[in-house]
Amino acid sequence: MHLNEFREFLSETKGLGKITQDHYVRWMKDFDPNQISQTYINQYIQDKGNNSQVRGAIMSLLEMMGIKKEFDMPQTMTGRKKKRVTRRVSVEEFEKVRDYLYSQSFKKGLIFDLIYQGALRRAEVSPIRINSFMWELFLQDPSKPCKLIVLGKGDKERVVLINPETTEKIFNHFASRMDMGDEETLKNFMNSPSLLFGVVGRRLTNKEIWKIVRFGSIEAIGRDIRPHELRHARATSMAKMGIPVQDIKNYLGHSSIATTEIYLHKSIDESIINIEEILQNKNQ
After folding, report:
1. For a surface tag, which of 61, 101, 255, 267 has the fewest beta carbons within 10 Å of its beta carbon?
2. pLDDT score, position 269
3. Residues 6+ apart with CB under 8 A from 275
4. CA–CA separation, 149 and 163 (whole Å)
């Protein structure tokens, strides 16, 4: 097969950009048109990791040769990576990672805290604004958890609880930058639409949040913890405290209680004691 001819077809007939052309040509370097058969195509795709670009490249090649209709792409291969198993997060691991991230920066530690306490998805962290917190209720009674409004899937709002120590940390962090004793300044702060984790006028990306938790945990405990595992850990901790599954479902923003039950480890290891104790003792 002449790869130059294939590239020309991709460009002039398919109208694909140069980057896509490069990818398709690269994946087709080992493809032998003289062996084309359904079995050969299936095996080639499997050998290449069932990459979606390989499938696209093969379909384009078959189209160029005028035999696309004679073959099918393997129906049982989706091209998706195997889903990783969610692992438990022990109290010791939780404490070490949390302490490490706070030692790196206030922002990193706070991201870790909010993901766990609010059982947040990564996409729910970046949109949090200062006025997402119900500051008035918190200031009326700082000993109670503060309510935080987050946007879940489909931009559906739900309320999660952030413990008093963490909320006080946030308040003091901003108070150190302004005179909160002034009533007008305090009011402006509570109503501020500024992003809590803004980066040069933009939101943190999901990938950046993932990296903060994952790489921080690798540095702290020698293995990675993913943000979603903190969400699972929070659900498990709530179940251990005796909170009804229906309430946990609402807290996590699940549409089905069956999904929530997947999050709850049926045999809760005693090493996963109430992480709330760590938050109370360390969040000072």
Report:
1. 267
2. 44
3. 91, 94, 116, 233, 234, 237
4. 14
